[in-house]
Amino acid sequence: MILTYAIYFNFACFGAALLMTLVQVVSARDIGDRILALDTMVINVIALLVLYGMLAGTAVYFEASMIIAMLGFVSTVAYARFILRGNIIE
Amino acid sequence: MELIVEIVVAFFLVVSGIFGFTGSYGLIKLGDPMSRLHAPTKATTLGVGGLLIAAIVSTYVFHDHLSLHELLITLFLFLAAPVTAHFIAKAHIHRHEKAEDLPDPGPDPEWAVLHHDPDDVHRRTPTGNESAR
Q: What is the least distance, in Å, from the CA of B109 to any CA of chain A?
């Protein structure tokens, strides 16, 4: 019972966090801020997926969140590298 | 016994939720770009770490098997967060800072990010324009 409420509380926290990163992606003034907001958004999505896996009681979502973690890391590095060098793979 | 584990997992969930919320709130609240870098890379990573600990404990106790995939995600995030923060900070220095305003680079002759090599055609100049080919 207490666990269900804790999971719902955590859903609310990470959902609000996702909305705030969305606001930051839309309204950021500089491209660096936008990349940072996208990176944070990926981390929040991982948290939401793991939480949904806990609620549903399956392990499928852990694999999905692992893949999203890797893709998020690679895409953040690629974005930062692109604004740094004007090129990703030289 | 079940109740104690449930309380522990709920505690981890609440703490991780607060950390995750704080991280993203800092992203829109803080004023300076480098302060903004500070909030999500640390607080959100810690929040996801707590959530994954809660997931490990709850699958071990309530579903009777110890799965360590979650630990893999934690490890990966703890490795990835400093690297992404370093890259974003480097891009910020490259685009917005001048060599005169930065502190002394120490034993190196200059800041490597701001070093301009005329032979490197892919390199952008610090103003953001493509260098001459």
A: 21
Q: How far apart are CA B113 and CA B123, in angstroms?
A: 10
The secondary structure element, H or E, covering residue B102 is: none
pTM: 0.85
A40, B40: Cβ pair inside 8 Å?
A: yes
Name the residue with tokens 């859903």: A11
In chain A, which residue ranges form alpha helices assigned H by DSSP? Answer: 2-27, 31-56, 60-85
Cβ atoms B40, A46 nearer than 8 A:
no
Q: Is the CB of B80 less than 8 angstroms away from the CB of A66?
A: no
B130 has which bridge partners? B124
A16 touches chain B (CB under 8 A): yes
Residue B119 has pLDDT above 80, yes or no: no
Please report, in angstroms and rounded to a whole number, the separation of the first and last CA atoms in chain A. Answer: 55
